[in-house]
Structure of TonB-dependent receptor:
Amino acid sequence: MRNNYLKNYLLLFALLLVSGVAFAQTGSISGTVTDNKSITLPGVSVSIDGTNIGTATDVNGAFRLNGITSGTHTITAKYIGYGNVSRQVTVTAGQTANIALVMESQAQALNEVVVIGYGTQQRKDVSGSIATVNSRDFQKAVVSSPEQLIAGKVAGVSVISNGGQPGAGSQIRIRGGASLSATNNPLIVIDGVPLSDNGISGAANPLSLINPNDIETFSILKDASAAAIYGSRASNGVVLITTKKGQSGAPKINFNSQVGVSKVSKKVDVFSASEFRDFVNEHGTPEQIALLSDSETDWQDVIYQTAITTDNNINVSGGIGKNFPYRVSVGYLNQDGVLKTDNLKRTSASVNLSPKFFDNHLKVNLNLKGAINKSRFANQGAIGAAVSMNPTFPIYSDNDEFGGYYEITKQGNLETLAPRNPLGLLELRNDNSTVKRSIGNLQLDYSFHFLPDLHANLNLGYDYSSGEGKIFVPDYAAQGYNRITVDGVVHNGTNNQYSQKQQNRVGEFYLSYNKDVKSIESRFDAVAGYSYQIFRNEDAPNGSQNYGFPDLTADNVVVQSRLFPNNVFQNVLISYYGRLNYTFKNRYTLTATVRTDGSSRFAEENRWATFPSGAFAWNAKEESFLQDVDAFSILKLRVGYGITGQQEGIGLYDYRSFYNLSNNAAQYQMGDAYYNMYRPGGYYQNRKWEQTATTNVAVDWGFFNDRLTGTIEYYYKKTKDLLNEVAQPAGTNFRNQIVANIGSMENKGVELTVNSQPVKNKDFTWDLGVNFTYNTNKITQLTIAPDPNYVGARFGNISGGTGNSVLINSVNNPRGAFYVYQQVYNSEGKPLDGVFVDRNGDGIVNDNDLYRYKSIDPKAFFGLSTSVAYKKWTAGLVLRGSIGNYLYNNVFSNTATLRNIFNPVGGYLNNASTNLLETGFSGAGDTYFSSDYYVQNASFLRIDNINVGYNFGKIFNSGANLRLYGNVQNAYVFTKYKGLDPEVNSGIDNNFYPRPRTFVLGLNLDF
């Protein structure tokens, strides 16, 4: 391995050396690029005509081209939104020619190049709903997972992180999703490789193995006319991620370093030690008062820490000769969690090679990305324990029992149901994993010599990942308490091991034809292709179990190996697809798309399905009656309709009978040996695709030469063959319920996007972007035939009581409605303990009085991004907000009762939320858990990011450009919600891992 690293470093050194020699034998061109108001333009593409030598301007609009042969050359500058500029320059060997290029602004939005499925288009030819976010507009923050870069940036797209854990993923929802029982995650495609929706053991989030610093753009395909080219996986939308590529020219080195300091911004409001003593002394019995101690412990302070994050990235890009651009990057992230012992270390690397051969007829694009994540996962049970643990107890005991941590005991034995020492839960558990992932592909684009407009494209890609880990709890730890056998032996400790491998391979071949026929004022763009993708998952369940089971001794010696050590799953997707775009007179565009998919997830009679779509766009600005209207720079109408499918999140072989391997705690003894058993599972042979039909109507507009642009869209999505649980007769099909295609659901909404540049002059610019989304959701069918007695599918289990759930999916109601009792209040607005409205008036309050109240989904959400630049200073702000979403506060319902403090089944006391002072609830029975009192308005406005930076320009006469910057992430949240955080994906707030507030300092160097 070390030899391989050495070879790679020597190769890179040789490339730099060769480039340096070539530079010494030739001349250079340097200069600046500005607009017609003398404002410098960063990111402008500057190249020498007839060669592949090129570069991009830096933050000060400066550029330099090295290795130019002596003589006269034509240099051309290109930039989105500006007309191309060309100048002739004479170069002398060993000298540098200096020029200044001035570019004229033009309407830019319609000329933008947009990444679509299997190709690109100019924005003016796009007829579907596609949103693009490039690296200039990403969140300026330390992020460990790439989807967080676009949070709050796109109308119709909600990105909510799953909590504050390092590497935690996010819930991505495009236009509300399209399913109940399957997944609502969009399909993610990286550089042409569609990813599996499955996670990998040992990683909190598989996307965390992709370095955000390597990403150039996100393209989000939101409606069916844009996404149908991906057929059976596009009902929830498609996210196309394009990574950064190299450009020909002299080597350029970029180094970026960030340091972040994170702290918990809010804690659960529980009784302090003194408040707890006062409460117990006032309300407790003498026996309960005797359970108090004399310590002053804030258990939440004990488990949380100030967390440090460092993120360092370096990349080298340039060109070898005229036709071999390259880019190589390496990154290292070390992120501590605010919960003690939590840590993520990621080492990543990427290589992009883009050579061209045969006079540019053959273009090769090789993308390789790899990462290794090493994680230590904190025991998140410590969060709930810190809320409940008696604050009058000390952290440590006066002996070595339980590792020296104070634990609640009775007559020398652990109290079975009492909370464990929160710090002991963290420090006496080692949950470590190593996950490796590599994503890559080889793309060949061949333009036929006899017909250059016809291209043959080959894409061979892969996504390999492996994860392994071990969870170890020593036998003396209180958290490792498992059981007492009949002989009175206590078995403590855990030593679980796991491993998993996933393979995803794709092979695609397609033909593309792009022709502009000026004689008939027509433009044709056609694609037709074939795709084969195979997925393989090899899962080795826990290699060992809790101490005391027959196959493992306390010395970690396996007594009996499993007969079948691995579970192997495999599935295949075969596809045929095509798309035709036709544009007439730059005014009218027709798009037709079709994809046929065959998936091994379904039985043969349901295995194939076809997903068509069509769209029309009218570029009204090109009509004669508007061409001379200077106020309008864009006016375009788009209409689209299509059908997409869903095959993720529904199992691989559910259409046929299969057997499941038991875990090590459920073995069968044969003689002196123990064996894992395979048990039969239920199946549903008629399972088929969920299908979503989408209608989209939009208007794109722009004023004042694109200084003010925007889009307003209306969409309607109808999903049929929705999967839902169906009860099975007892004793049949090895299962009480099966999931069948029996439902339907609709989503409809309006999206508004506005982007503007209110101020733009030589010294000062101000950019402002706003997006707003309104979405409603309704379930229209959940049974095979209408059944007025079917209340719906209940879910959303909560802590406390036995088998309580507070959510329901039911017909003519939104997805994820709360199913609760209507609380009764006194004249002062205080909830009455255990008193609820008899809604049906039968004189009895029971399950028949539960009602559907609010929903976990917001009615609307929005984002605002603004940035200013004054000379060398920059500053920015990102806001996100949500309106009409509700949360069930399970921390209140589970802790804020007298019964919780004065536990009747154990000789110990629990701490409680101070909400108990507002309600005075006794906690008798279980019905209070279902009170709508605990369903709280979680609408919010979050200041997501505040950033400021300064561009020093060239420093130390070295030609290096330096930029320093700082930002604050999760700066503040405005909300009426009384819990820790108003953003909880599940809709149930039960000791959520808090999102920290993070302060970041960073520097960026360009050489």
